[in-house]
Amino acid sequence: MARIGFERLAHAYPGGGGYALKPMDMVWEDAGAYALLGPSGCGKTTLLNIVSGLLRPSEGRVLFGAADVTALPTERRNVAQVFQFPVVYDTMTVRENLAFPLRNRGVPAAAARGRVEYVARLLGLTRDLDRPARNLGADEKQKISLGRGLVRNDVAAILFDEPLTVIDPNLKWELRSRLKELHREVPVTMIYVTHDQTEALTFADRVAVMSEGEVVQMGTPEALFERPAHTFVGHFIGSPGMNLLPCAVEGRQALLPGGLHVTLPHAYPALSGQVELGIRPEFATLADEGLPVTIRRLEDLGRRRIARLELAGRPFAATLPEGMPVPAEPRLLLQPAQLHVYAGGRLMPGE
Ligand code: ATP
Q1: Which atom of ligand 1 is least distant from the CA of 47?
Q2: Which residues 6+ apart lie within 8 Å of 301 measured at CB?
Q3: Which ligand 1 atom is the nearest neighbour of the CA of 195?
Q4: What atom in ligand 1 is closest to the CA of residue 42?
């Protein structure tokens, strides 16, 4: 087990035209559950491969505890990895597959047996333990891969690279919570790479949100929701994401296009210039008074409805609580304390 640290870490692929991973410093605490979340091409796999040792960074250092592992190959880093597609020996039974990483490390048979059965139970593979892996379906094979990653409890870290992509959606939900459960029982540093916010937010205690080769925010799921440090995080996380309105601000008054005014929360100092106002749809609702808006359409999400609006000529999403009728002359009401102010994409100090 280890704390993983990055010092001025960066990577540019040869001939790649710039940084795939921009210079950064970051720490993943020992035994934490972390997710790397971001859209395709943002650098998640590059960072994960640097941690596993598959890729040598072009700049900076990687530390496991106090040890500099930057130049160490994968086999000397003591990390377990689970990939998007199953890595399973078809000729072996499920039990032999699960025991393989333990046998390789010389773990005594009795200890290995208990551990294999524990992991099998957790993943719902107990009945299949003595079946040849080749007779199992794709979902079960990926469970074996997960099991092989989880079976050792002496690793520095377990790295998951989109491990549930090939899993049936219903089973995905269950496996996600099993992984979380396992992390509570076996506190090993786990890093989970995904482009799916639900997977990241349910698995991880801390999520690193990446955009264009940069970790734009690392925080708890609550922090990413309540205080997005960057407009990208606000927009990427949530469904729908945060509303963003460009506006001019003077003192405490924000002037939206169309001559509308919004008063900023008191937490901010008096400002002047061009900013973006951010507010999540959860803190914006339709009412009888407020800013004039046009309703474009309503989306029924069961417990709540999302009203897709037009505010000062721009799209805007608000929430209509269950049972609330649509006002005849809809107005938009914002919870002022939930307004965030961004300049150049970054959250302005003051909150
Ligand atoms: P995905 O979810 O699609 O795997 P990702 O977030 O994991 O995306 P990376 O695969 O790390 O992103 O890629 C980051 C950037 O580096 C991208 O612009 C990609 O095109 C580039 N890149 C990745 N591998 C190489 C390579 N071997 N040579 C050159 N450029 C690369």
Answers
A1: 11
A2: none
A3: 2
A4: 6
Edge-to-edge strand list for the sheet holding 243-251: 260-263, 253-256, 243-251, 271-279, 340-343, 346-347
Residues with CB under 6 A from ligand 1: 13, 16, 20, 38, 40-46, 195
Q: Give pLDDT, residue 252.
A: 86
Total-model pTM: 0.92
Which tokens sit at 52?
Answer: 């596993």
Neighbour order of strands in the sheet with 206-211: 79-82, 157-161, 189-194, 33-37, 206-211, 214-219
19, 36, 37, 44, best to mutate for ligand 1 pocket (most atoms within 8 Å of CB): 44
- 192-238 residue pLDDT tens: 999 999 999 999 999 999 999 999 999 999 999 999 999 999 999 99
The full set of domain ranges for the chain reads 4-234, 241-347
Select the CATH number that applies to the domain covering 4-234 from these four: 3.30.700.20, 3.40.50.300, 2.60.120.260, 3.30.160.340. 3.40.50.300
- Cβ(122)–Cβ(185) below 8 Å: no
Tokens 């076996």: give the residue: 186
Dihedral pair phi/psi, residue 215, rounded to 5°: -85, 105
Could you say which residues of the chain have pLDDT below 50?
Answer: none
* 26 C-alpha to ligand 1 centroid (Å): 20
Task: State the complex-level ipTM.
Answer: 0.97
In the block, residue with structure tokens 């072009």: 58
Minimal-distance CA residue to ligand 1 atom 28: 13
Q: Could you tell me the distance, in angstroms and rounded to a whole number, from the CA of residue 195 to the centre of ligand 1? A: 13
Phi and psi for 339 in degrees, rounded to 5?
-80, 135
Indicate the SS3 state at residue 222: helix
